[in-house]
Amino acid sequence: MDFLDQLIEKGWLKTNRIIQAFKKIDRKDFVRPNLKDASNYDQALPIGHNQTISQPLVVAFMLEKLDPKPGQKILDIGSGSGWTTALLAEIVGKEGKVIAIEIIEELMKFGKKNVRKYNFIEKGIVEFICKDGSKGYKKNTPYDRILVSASAKEIQKKWKTQLKKEGRLVAPLQNSIVLYIKNKNNTIEKYPGFKFVPLVQNEK
User: Fold this and answer.
1) Most distant pair of Cα atoms in the chain: their distance
2) Count of domains for the chain
3) What is the CATH number of the domain that holds 157?
4) Which member of 54, 79, 81, 134 is catalytic?
5) How does pLDDT run across 12-26, given as a tens digit for each residue?
């Protein structure tokens, strides 16, 4: 049984559109060549520069909390290998847009190459930017959803500003996954017990 069957069986993956994206976007297309045999296991894998492609269970949990929908505009911060970018692109479809932000240029090129396998860039659904994701990306604001895939010390003010009203942001803070909903009460839900690489930021 591969990780996808396990995630569905154990209830980590529940939403049909997210399940279908996991079925279509093959994780082995987003790992280093020497690790393709390990891509079907539920574990994080190194992609270079002290970064990882996240454990499938963690990605499933974060996407379920993010609740991405067709036609939405999503900012994917710390896009790394491009796996989450491709999953989001499959969900938002041709009417949607995913902006992938990666500060490490070599990883940005690696992720872009991987996502090209699914023609999302050619279709205008995905755009890659080499930039410090801690500052978000103002050009395409506001976003329906923001996904952060590396651990920050706090939810950055610019992320909140760039999020639509009623928008959702999912980000790791230290060893917890946090869901922030930009509503009247600015709802925050915290889920401890996770481990992430730190968010790389410019010193300035």
Assistant:
1) 48
2) 1
3) 3.40.50.150
4) 54
5) 999 999 999 999 999
